[in-house]
Structures are given as C-alpha cells and as structure tokens.
Queue: 2 jobs
Job 1
Amino acid sequence: MNILAVESSCDETAVAIVRDGRQVLTDCIASQVDLHRIYGGVVPEIASRKHIEAIYGLADQALANTGLTRQDIDAVAVTYAPGLIGAVLVGVNFAKAAALAMGKPLIPVHHIRGHIAANYLAYPELEPPFLCLVVSGGHTMFVEVKDYTDMRILGTTLDDAAGESFDKVARVLGMPYPGGAALDKAAKLGDETKYVLPRSKPGDNPYNMSFSGLKTAALNLIHHAEQVGEELDIPSLCAAFSAAVSDTLIPRAVMALRETGYRKIAVAGGVAANSRIRSDLLAAAEDLGAEVYMPPLSLCGDNGAMIGAQAYYEYLAGNLADMSLNAYATKSILGEAL
Ligand code: KG4
Ligand code: ZN
C-alpha cells in the first residue's frame, strides 16, 4: 500500500511516499529554518504562507522521484495535530483536496505518533509493545506503545518541553535558531561540573518532568555573569545543561524499563538527536540488558516519512477521516475520537 504523507505542523513542509508503513520510497522536505532564524524562532504566519507555497510542488516532486502516478497512490495521510494551527491547516486542507480529487482514503495522523513511528522505518524488525521516550521541540513524555495505535502515557513534562528549553538557553547564548544542536556541539568541549544546575521532581507521578526551573536557572546564571562582568564558560554551561536534561530523562527511562518489564526502548523527536541523551540512554539500557532504538538524525526531526509509517497502522486500525477533518493545535496522543 503506497501512502502519500503530508507534514506541515511547524517549520518543515514535507511530503513522502511510504509503502506498507516501512519502506520509504521518497521523503521530500522543504525546510523554512533559515527564514525563521532571523527572528530567533518560528513566526507562525510566515510558516503557514511558506507551507502553501511549497506543498503542491513537493507532492509533484514526490511522485516524480518515485516514478509513481496518482493512480499508484492508495491513500493520503496528514498530520492533523498538534502544531501551529495555521501551519497544520495547510497540510490538512491539501491532503483533503488530494484525497478527494484522487478518490482515496484520508488518514489523520497525530504528529507525535509519527515521531514514534520513525522507529519502524529505521528498524524493520521493531514491533510493539515497547517504551518510547518522546523528546521534541514541543513535547517530552514517556509512552508505553502497547500496539501501533494503542498507547499509554506514563508521564510528561508539566511545563516546557526539553527542546524548548534547549532552544531558549541556546538563543540567550547567541546561538542561531533552533539552537539545540549547536548547544549539543558546544557541550562536547565543556566541563559539566563547572556549573551546578537543578534537576526537578515535580508532583506525585515520578514519570512527570519539569524543565522550566532548569531553564530559568541557566538563564539566571547567564544574566548574572553578564551583570557582574564575569566571563562565561559557554561550553561548560552547555555541558551542565545537557547533563541536567539527560539526568531528568534517563533515570525515568530506567524506572520505566524496570517497572514495566519491557526490554525495548525507542526514542523519538528532534531532541533524540542529542549526543548526551543518546549515549546516556545506551549506557543505562546496556546495564539493564535492554535494546535501544534510535532513528538516524534524518528521521528524528520532522519529516513526511514518519507520518506515512504511522498512517499505515492507523489505516489498518480503521482510523480514517472524511472531508470534515479539522486541524488541532493541541491534542492528546491517545487518539480520542476525531
Ligand atoms: O521533533 P522536532 O523536529 O520538532 C517538534 O516536533 O517539536 O524537534 C525540534 C527540536 C528543537 O527544539 C531542536 O533544537 C531540537 O529538536 N534538537 C536538539 C538537537 N537536535 C535538534 N536538541 C538537543 N540536541 C540536539 N542535538
Ligand atoms: Zn516534530
């Protein structure tokens, strides 16, 4: 089954064609990152306009790359939530029009389910159940993937997402948007013990997390150094920050593996590219004899292929939409009725 998959929830316009949920035939992406960089973050209105400009051409390019015709497409999938509402709407409206014009089923896909499904592309043998650590620009949560479309949230951030806090600290340090990767790179040259940053444990659920206190502590440290004219050791601050984020995530991942008895843990989302998180998770999982699934960096960020992968399983589960499909800025990954 060939699924034409559309993603436009943030600042990448993406159209992919994925066969049977596992084989990427083409994965076309038009990134707007350079455009938003001058503003230090994504400007929603610009994102929507750029999606409109790019999306049709990308779909044509996807067909051209594969040599497939519209008749060879069996269904159209689209990210319908969560994301910047104007941006998501562009993809949803395009996908609705394409599905209607081609007379094909329309499959709505939750963006975070898509991030998790990037693992199915990277690891053909991976099947649920497994645990997944979702760490993206907008989400940070531990998910029990019981089946392809049946999930349970163990815990989530109560305030900022990990990626959001990476980007905010990087921005104040003068790194270009999105700063997570630059901060990660700088951290490799630093001494993480030079600065002390907090690790918070919010609320009753031990799987819940908080990153706003950590972010504020890092920002205060930077501003204080500026005020008293003290030279900041940026690589060491980046190393301390990365260590604090990792120390928030990895012990919870270990606890989740222990308590659930699963021996498989996947990571998903852009922050899964972080080298500190990757190496700490690998080391922790090795101690437990657990298997770690980490998509390549190209599949960690937003892309259309991950939406096409999840769409196949949503289709098999009968989760289809009609022309009344709407876009949503926020929506739970648990997949309540549309
Ligand atoms: O999943 P994603 O592409 O977008 C959302 O769905 O939110 O994630 C983007 C996030 C940004 O915050 C970016 O700074 C972060 O992923 N990121 C990183 C790294 N590479 C990307 N954060 C830390 N270390 C990295 N190496
Ligand atoms: Zn994403």
Note: The mean pLDDT is 96.
Job 2
Amino acid sequence: MDKIEHIGIAVKDLEAANEVYTKLFGKAPYKTEAVESEGVSTSFFKVGESKIELLEATKEDSAIAKFITKKGEGIHHIAYAVKDIKAEMKRMKGEGFIVLNDEPKKGADNKLVCFLHPKSTNGVLIELCQEISE
Ligand code: ZN
C-alpha cells in the first residue's frame, strides 16, 4: 500500500456538511459526485496532500444509511491507495482478510475500489483504491 488516499465520513445531510467543511478548510469541495450503484452522494476536499470524502446516503438500504442508523455520523472508512488492486485483493485474501467484493468496482473520484470487512481489521472498514488511468 502506498499511502492513505482519503478518509470517508458518513453525514446525514451532504449540503449542510459541505458548508461545515468548507468553513473548516477555508475552501469548497473540489468535486461532488453521486455513485448510483452504491446509493451515495459524495464530496471531496483536499487538505494538503490528504483528502476527505463526505458521504450521504441516497437510498434507504445503502451501506451509509445503515451505518448512520447504527452508529450515527462519523468516520466511516479509511482508504489506502494501491497500484494493483487485483494483486492486493488476492494478497489480502491470502492473509485471511474478509474482502467484500470478488472484483474491484468503480468508486467515486475515478477509482477502482474494494472493501475489507471491519470484522477482519479491528473494527475499521478499509477501502483499497487504485486510480483509473486513462
Ligand atoms: Zn472512500
């Protein structure tokens, strides 16, 4: 793994949260994007070399909606950048981690992503992401 790519924060109201984080960082998100397949709307802020992703559920049965019902707003996942997501997924499975997808899927911000179940990572949902090169 190369670095922490971003930290994902689950929010109830993306518009309201965007205002809070715009004040916090002194600048607006550089991108907002809906990921239909995941039932989320996202926005991304840059803080130096780091990124923060805010996620709001757009469907009642989405993972973010369930997370907020169970735990409330807060840190949802930590994403790590990898160069070869398929190789990393294979390595993770080999190490006994619970990899939540069989194949990488298209995530927000031009990434291929997959998730590791928090049960196998001391309670933290981990996202692996690889930049899609075009
Ligand atoms: Zn993420």
Note: The longest helix spans residues 14-25.
